[in-house]
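Course assignment 3, question 2. Fill in each field.
Student: A.L.
Task: Predict the tertiary structure for the chain below.
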Amino acid sequence: MDSEQLRQVKEFKDFAQATMEARQRKLASPTSSHVSLGRPLRAVVFLVVWLLCAGLGAALGAVFGGGIGAGVVMPVAIVVGTIPALWVSRVFRVAAQWERAVILRLGRFHGIKGPGVLFVFPVMDHAFFVDTRLLTLDIPHQQVITRDNVPVAVDGAIFFMVKDSERAVVTVQDYRYAISQYAQASLRDVIGSMTLDELLSERDQIQARIAQAVEERSVAWGIHVDSIRLLDINMPEDLKRMMSRQASAEREKRATITKAEGDKEAAINLAAAASTMARSPGAMQLRTLQSLDGLGSSPSNTVVLAVPTNVLELVQGLAERVRRDDPTPPPTS
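Answer field:
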């Protein structure tokens, strides 16, 4: 690989690293999901109030100055009427069905309103809209060293919902950012206390432990953690190859043991079958005929039986009779 290719590989790695860091900052940064549903209503209110102010100015000018007065006062009323129209239109806010508005009046907590049309008075009130649906945050890749000193990269997702809107706004600066950071820290703490084998085999227990740790802290923030799921576990490539070889050796070991056990059971069954045939004089002949029947099913097979089974039985009987008549053992060299 020449220097130009090395430079391109390095640039690609730097770009991938920068992309990952930007993604992590984006996912972990505070976000707002308020849906502005009150703009059409505020536009209508503004138009109505503005027309009323202009009409009232024209009426007053006509009363006190006639037609000339109405012509002079009406432009002024149109310009001046924009201010109260804007103020009145800002009073009306709309919260969606899943939203709650935390109202601060002159800096102090005033109440929780919503869903529907809200009355938020400008200058005096300030509204924080809180989403009470089930929310999802990504836990970006976390570099963790397990208890047996194996580096792994783990990412996941946290599912939670806001149960107390007041505490979620007043107690913590940004509950999304806070729970994301706390989930990342809890993930590193829990996985760092476990070995690699436990991490790979006890995934459900790890997720439950992380969710419990985050839940214990987030209750004070008015947040309920539904669950935490581990999405991916990355390990070094050399460790993956070693684990693959270990798994292959383990499967080969199980296959060898299974084959040996099968051979053992087959030998036991064959010995039992031979013993049964030895006790039954006609069993071997029936077995031979059964084998011949199986071989003769195809017209291409030709079977030649050189010695019938009854002749073999006769020879065997004569040999036994000879042994009984001549009990002298054969000479040994």
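Instructor remarks: The beta strands are 92-95, 99-105, 108-113, 116-119, 125-131, 135-145, 151-162, 223-234. The longest helix spans residues 237-279.
Grade: pending
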